[in-house]
Amino acid sequence: MTAASPDRSFLRAALGHPAFVIGFALSLLFIALALVSFVWTPFDPTKLAIANKLKTPTFEHWFGTDHFGRDMFSMIMVGARVSIAVAFVAVGIGMLIGVPLGLYAAARRGSLVDEVIMRGNDLVFAFPSLLLAIMITAVFGPGAVNAIIAIGIFNVPVFARLARGAALSLWTRDFVLAARVAGKTRARISAEHILPNIANLLIVQGTIQFSLAILAEAALAYVGLGAQPPLPSWGRMLADAQTLISLAPHMALFPGFAIIITVLGLNLMGDGLRDLFDPKLRRGR
User: Fold this and answer.
1) Is 70 helix (H, G, I), strand (E, B) or coil?
2) 88-98, pLDDT tens digit by residue?
3) Residue 69 — φ and ψ, nearest 5°?
4) Which superkingdom is the protein from (predicted)?
5) How far apart are the C-alpha atoms of 48 and 232, rounded to whole Å?
6) Rounded to whole angstroms, what are the CA distances from 183 to 177, 192, 283?
7) Are the C-beta atoms of residues 19 and 268 closer than 8 Å to each other?
8) Does this model's pTM top 0.85?
9) What is the residue-averaged pLDDT of the chain?
10) Poorest-pLDDT segment among 101-105, 134-138, 191-195, 223-227
11) Which residue range forms the structural domain that includes residue 257?
12) Is 243 helix (H, G, I), strand (E, B) or coil?
């Protein structure tokens, strides 16, 4: 009997991991809503219909309407697109800048460059992430682009520290020493030998940072510093609902549930990936 291929073995383990399956399904649901919103929504989420304001959920308006008569379900669909886009680009910025910095610092461990990079990371970490994002958007102005930059800046030291710490543990391994004896440069060793061996850690951390980025985007939108009208945003939907929660609780419940379910799904998927990528944890299941 032939042994199962690594891909099939991983897929079988993934399907047998409840947390990963639930997290993946929840994440996929909101990604699907975001993608569908590019081509279809039940109603125009920017069209005002004052005659229909504050309607409770019905067969016509599944999640009800807001104080301007806009369809809540359509707004949540477009809000998912905004939140996912902002989080995806922000985490991408953090990875594209932070991982090379961390790898370079590990390759030059103990040098002045290593010290400068890590102290720079400490400087960014000295400010709470949300406060730092608010400061940046307050200076450069509100909007989705500035929110992406603000959230991305905080993600840089997160990935830099993770990449440096993981890489340092590999630089003393035999396969790295063999590559150095073969005459490979530090940059080539980092790209060909170090990065592939820490990719699993980066992927898991990426899912966690993705969920945090969605929360940060919602928080910025809540205080008016995220995506601007008429573009719907989950955080601004909550801000609009805070003075009307006794009259129309659905205005706060549905965007709040959207944030909770999306973040929960990403965290469950991240925990599942951590277990699946760790051979010790996989054997213990």
Assistant:
1) coil
2) 999 999 999 99
3) 80, 10
4) Bacteria
5) 13
6) 10, 13, 37
7) yes
8) yes
9) 90
10) 134-138
11) 12-45+63-279
12) coil
